[in-house]
Amino acid sequence: MPTNSTTQTLEIAVLPGDGIGPEVMGAAIELLHAVHVECGGPALHFTHYDAGAQFFARSGVALPDSTLESCGLSDAMLFGAMGWPDIVNPDGTEIMPQLELRMAFSLYAGVRPIRWFPGLPAVLTDERARGIDFVLIREQTEGLFYARGRGRMVDDNEAYDTMQITRAGTARVSEFAFRLAERRKARRAFSLVTCVDKANVFTSMAFFRKVFDGVAAQHPGIPANHSLVDAMAMNMLKKPWDLDVMVMENMYGDILSDMGAGLIGGLGMAPSGDIGDAHGLFQPVHGTAPDIAGQGKANPCAMFLSAAMMLDWLADRHGEAALEVGARAIEKAVEIALTGGEVVPMDYGGSSGTAALTTAVISALPAARRGVQ
């Protein structure tokens, strides 16, 4: 039975996007309806909005003002995947409305959880790899991505993109990382926040580290350290089980988060949240996968886990404990479905497509709900 009843309804702006985006989004909404029946809590009202590369090809606009306005009025944004190889801007860059949304709503904390699920093939042979459970935090409004749309060409011989690092931007994302580590501490044997940078080379990165250290001093109960980004790339392969929360500049986070997904087998199990002080957007890390779009082959688990992150965030903002229960139930249901061995995603060498995985995870919800009480 549901944990509680409430008359509150939360408005979710749904942006399915391109390629497999609509397929995994449809599966996630079906799952969220089942979670509401199983766990109770506020009703979620889903409204779909246009955006993306294929919409741009039809309309000449990638992110309509009406969509942007509606997203700002919503309680959360649920995002599929956007972009298409043959549909690009005049300068050759891809159509990526997600970057505009990050800037428009100051979604400064890019949260990228990396967790190994039982039932998945092991990428690393060390048994400790079964304990992989860490989070990368990308600062998403500054860094090298700040240069998007601001790049400079000189006589078709030189190109410049400038990185921006500010005290305010670095302090708030560092604070976010320490607060997250504090919440994770209750279920882990250790806590650690690592500043990932290139402070030995770049003035901007030395400044990033300096600001991070100032925030760390305000959280004496959470251990903190530093790692150069190249050293972290090696350590993620050698001993990822020693990692907890890492905070870094945008481009470093973009690269390392995909590397982290590789440690658990691929992007099909990699969710994310783009979070600011007033808004949150949740999406799978994978792209639009044009090669399998429309074939029912997409793995929806990253979308499911992104939906769980959304429920967690909404639970915290609205004081709705049932939403947090729903988030844990989704995670547990994914684990149960995969552990049984009857469904194996195609990107993990199996034959289970979107529909089969969705059915298996929804079928596992009652057992998952009992397991998270």
Question: In short, what is this structure?
Answer:
By secondary structure, this protein is of the alpha/beta class. The chain contains twelve helices and twelve strands.
Tags for this entry?
alpha/beta; 373 residues; Isopropylmalate Dehydrogenase; ten-stranded mixed sheet; two-stranded antiparallel sheet; 41% helix
Describe this structure in words.
It is built from 12 helices and 12 strands. With 373 residues, the chain is of the alpha/beta class. It has 2 domains: 211 residues, Isopropylmalate Dehydrogenase, CATH 3.40.718.10; 143 residues, 3-Layer(aba) Sandwich (Isopropylmalate Dehydrogenase). It has a 10-stranded mixed beta sheet with strand order 2-1-3-12-11-4-5-10-8-9, with helices on both faces. Strands 6-7 form a two-stranded antiparallel ribbon. Strand 11 and strand 12 form a beta hairpin. Helix 1 packs across helix 9 and helix 7 runs parallel beside helix 8. The longest helix has 19 residues. It is globular, with a radius of gyration of 20 Å. The termini are close together. The mean pLDDT is 93.
